[in-house]
């Protein structure tokens, strides 16, 4: 039995899509359909119900899925045992939120290149919700974002969080001074995507005191938030170390309200099945980079 056919079956089952499985495995959709048809002929049963443009495992398909995953994991273990890590030439698709781009991404990618000099990577920077959507379609192998992927086929690992601060223009009246929550509420607040962890954290600070900010602007890009603040557009919630240069040169300043926004939680997520050992090493490198960043750059 060709294990590539089992791999095609497993990814169609996981992604509920022949097209997504084809994109994941870098083959045509016709190739995926052919491999599934070959398996169904060999086992003399239908593995998927294909009704109303949906794909659902049959009872035989459910039975095969667990055994197929075990066979593929055994094959991966054998391949790992027979090949030296340094000979790996492959490609990995990594998705990160923009806060990582502005903090420890460079360190992470440097260590990744040292560990796997021949590894090619495709990097996508998007908000958490977009990364989850791409990951669910099989378009990304590892994502580092703010919320766990709630799926029993996915491994979620927590990384070091990023300290968040209230930030304003360097010459704002509130720069480097203590202010009240009422003064903060009277300002325009700039934060991340609506419904994101930083957005909800900022709102909760006001809600606990029965207040509501006069205006709340939600911006997808961290760089855009920083630019708006430097244009004196309001007070923002930003990761401290992402703006260290702007704080040093006086373009930005901290606002001293006692309750800070919650630290930006970071979660690495990857599928249990495909290239599990490689993905685990990638996540371990990310954990190391986030810890080093936290220890060396956060002021105590």
TrEMBL record:
Keywords: DNA-binding, Transcription, Transcription regulation. It comes from the Bacteria. Residues 1-58 form the HTH lysR-type domain. PROSITE patterns: HTH_LYSR. One of its GO terms (molecular function) is DNA-binding transcription factor activity. InterPro entries: LysR_HTH_N, LysR_subst-bd, WH-like_DNA-bd_sf, WH_DNA-bd_sf. Belongs to the LysR transcriptional regulatory family. This is LysR family transcriptional regulator. It comes from Cocleimonas flava. The lineage of its organism: Bacteria, Pseudomonadati, Pseudomonadota, Gammaproteobacteria, Thiotrichales.
């Amino acid at each position: 039995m060709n294990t590539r056919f089992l791999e095609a079956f497993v990814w169609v089952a996981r992604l509920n899509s022949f097209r997504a499985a084809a994109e994941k495995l870098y083959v045509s959709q016709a190739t995926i359909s052919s491999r599934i048809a070959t398996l169904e002929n060999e086992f003399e049963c239908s593995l998927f119900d294909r009704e109303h443009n949906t794909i659902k495992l049959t009872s035989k398909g459910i039975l095969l899925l667990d055994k197929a995953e075990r066979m593929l994991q055994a094959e991966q273990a054998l391949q790992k045992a027979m090949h030296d890590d340094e000979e790996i030439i492959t490609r990995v698709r990594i998705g990160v939120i923009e806060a990582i781009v502005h903090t420890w991404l460079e360190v992470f990618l440097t260590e990744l290149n040292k560990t796997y000099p021949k590894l090619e990577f495709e990097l996508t920077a998007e908000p958490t919700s977009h990364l989850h959507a791409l990951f669910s379609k099989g378009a990304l192998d590892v994502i580092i974002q703010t919320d766990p992927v709630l799926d029993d086929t996915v491994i979620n690992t927590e990384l070091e969080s990023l300290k968040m601060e209230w930030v304003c223009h360097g010459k704002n009246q509130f720069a480097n001074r203590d202010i009240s929550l009422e003064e903060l509420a009277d300002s325009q607040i700039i934060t991340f995507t609506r419904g994101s962890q930083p957005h909800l954290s900022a709102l909760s600070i006001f809600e606990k005191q029965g207040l509501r900010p006069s205006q709340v602007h939600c911006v997808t890009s961290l760089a855009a938030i920083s630019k708006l603040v430097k244009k004196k557009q309001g007070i923002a919630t930003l990761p401290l170390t992402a703006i260290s240069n702007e704080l040093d040169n006086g373009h930005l300043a901290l606002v001293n309200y006692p309750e800070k926004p919650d630290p930006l939680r970071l979660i690495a997520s990857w599928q249990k099945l495909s290239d599990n050992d490689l993905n685990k090493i990638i996540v371990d490198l990310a954990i190391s980079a986030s810890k080093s960043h936290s220890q060396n750059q956060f002021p105590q």
